[in-house]
Write a structure and sequence with these properties.
17 helices; about 0% strand; two-stranded antiparallel sheet; about 300 residues; mainly alpha
Amino acid sequence: MNLEATQTETDFLVPFGETLLCLGQAFLTPKESERANALRDDLVPDLEALRQATGVPAAGALDALASALRSTADAEGGLLRVYSRLFLAPPFPAPLNAGIQLDGALMGQSTVEMERFYQRHGLTRDREFRDLPDHLALQLQFVAFLHAKAAETEDREECAAIAGDARYFVRQLMLSWFPGWLEQLDEAVTHLPTAEAWRQLGRVTRDVLEADVVYLEALAPEVHAETAARPSLEEALDARMAPERSLEAPAACRVCGKEFAMGRDMVFMLQQLQARGLETEHLEACPDCRAGEMGLSETTVELPAAVSKHV
């Protein structure tokens, strides 16, 4: 590692971080008129100003994005209607949750790893953020935070370590699912032409992330020792569940009293709810009683074709 890094080598951190923060805000639900207006009117000028420092995205890409955003905003229902059809209303054609794209399920191993990164850097989700920790908007804002954190430190080794975490997060937990997600957006546009705004936004985001990885690689060319020594996902999952409850110890159903094995996934979910101060009684029942109490029956989730190809 070159400890004589010049200031020029870290100059990119702030503008790239601000670019990622803009993109993260753009992927939040445009429920309020202020957010929708900012998406339509302010996003592209902001990205254009930052492009002078980062070199991405290309001017043509920003022109295409601006045109698509105006067209979608002027369509019936505007940006919120299209956002909802793409990302919120089941069966959503292009999920924004990385866990669905990487694991084919919510709160899977990839999401556990993301949360470990957040905790590693002293972050917890804002109570106002209602989505899961693998949402693209949160991922982008987290990487923007790492850029700011790396830029603020005067310790070269610490800067390189933070940059190494950012590079790993972007490469492994973001760019790895972007190709399949962009295919889903391509397919969505054939049925919903106004989805072009988010297809262009997805492409711009990919271009920024790919360029960012190149810069991060130059700043931290080697995997930091602490990153390389991280435990496996299985070990991390075990650590987060212990010692509160043993996987082998049976639990007693609070409804019928019958003993049953909760299983790894159920224990993990229970502990996540407890950590957030939420009710867990509905989980402390055997499968038969739980289904009856909650009015549920077994079902299967049909993922979009483009997701299935990459799971």
